[in-house]
Amino acid sequence: MQEFAKYWWLFVLRGVLAILFAVLAFLWPAITLSILVIFLGAYFFVDGIFTLVHSFRVMKTEPRWWVLLLEGLVSIVAGLIALFSPGVTALFLVVLIAIWSLLTGIFEIILAIRLRKEITNEWMLILAGVLSILFGILLFMQPITGVVVISWWIGFYALFFGIFLIAVGIKLKKLGKA
């Protein structure tokens, strides 16, 4: 514990950086999501390269090596699309979240109806399903707004994460003095 207390300031520094990131996410939500999409694109691209290398290494011994080859090519293409068209990729992510939200909402309602004899207050699951469906519809109706909302969620996460890290850092500083 003393080692953590000794470097309490690193928690505070991480917290401050997280809060600064949160402020940027609130001020420039489109840029925040674009940066995340670029990181996603870089990951897809690098993953694709490694998968291609893997496919070539097992080509002589594994008859299904071509599956890895196709997977690698798909990852590379997805990575290039994300890197060169981050706006389109961000919009696609919003649409994907909208589809997920709609389907999840439908399944939550079905589950609540099926469980109504076994549990009480199944209406909460129905309400959660309705909210999921409404959220999905809103994202479909306003996908650009969805990009902003997702960036704000990331911003809220970073803000609270930063506050908690600073609080831990301060507690560790007090522990180190004791």
UniProtKB/TrEMBL annotation:
InterPro entries xrefs: Acid_resist_chaperone_HdeD, DUF308_memb
Keyword Cytoplasm applies: no
Highest taxon of source: Bacteria
Native species: Chitinophaga alhagiae
Keyword Flavoprotein appears in the UniProt entry: no
Name this protein carries in UniProt: HdeD family acid-resistance protein
Annotated keywords: Membrane, Transmembrane, Transmembrane helix
Membrane-spanning residues: 7-27, 33-53, 65-84, 90-111, 123-144, 150-170
